[in-house]
Amino acid sequence: MKLNHLHHVAIICSDYEVSKRFYVEILGLPIIQETYRAERDSYKLDLHIGQSQIELFSFPNSPKRPSYPEARGLRHLAFEVDDMDETIQELTTHGINVEPVRVDETTGKRFTFFSDPDELPIELYEK
Fold first, then answer.
1. Does residue 50 come out as left (phi exceeding 0), alpha (psi in the -120 to 50 range) or beta?
2. Among 37, 73, 27, CA closest to 58
3. Do 80 and 116 lie in a common domain?
4. Are residues 57 and 80 in the same domain?
5. Rounded CA separation 67/81 (Å)
6. Residue 98 CB contacts under 8 Å (≥ 6 apart), including other chains
7. Closest CA to 98 of 81, 116, 83, 72
8. Distance from the CA of 12 to the CA of which of 19, 27, 63, 91 falls in 20 to 30 A?
């Protein structure tokens, strides 16, 4: 078996317009395609990131997923950034709280976390 690369990550949000604004306007991810599926009363927004995509879904009354204490399963979404300080400054101008920067003991690289509108943990990892 040969896996080529990560194709996409799927995220289910509680408020489609709030999450769309967050991922498109604040994080700056370009829209590939937006689809409304009337039979499911659901939006699907495909966003471009590197060689991959984020699929942002809305479903009525979707249950909240526990994040703290850390639950079993996928832990977080991580984005590589060129300049940690500049990225943090941009996020804070939008009122987004960012955790203190830490250093990865293995790689020596700086990283930090913040949350999307549904409290999904997002990591920034400096190149």
1. left
2. 37
3. yes
4. no
5. 24
6. 88, 91, 92, 112, 113, 114, 124
7. 116
8. 91
Per DSSP, the three-state class of 119 is: coil
CA 40 → CA 20, 32, 57, 58, 102, distances in Å? Answer: 18, 21, 11, 9, 42
Q: Answer for the pair 125, 111: CB distance below 8 angstroms, yes or no.
A: yes
What are the pLDDT digits (tens) for 24-53?
999 999 999 999 999 999 999 999 999 999
Condensed to tens digits (0 to 9), the pLDDT of residues 74-97 reads 788 999 999 999 999 999 999 999
Q: What's the domain count of the chain?
A: 2
Strand partners, 55: 10, 46
Q: Which two tokens stand for residue 101?
A: 């920067």
Domain contains 67: no
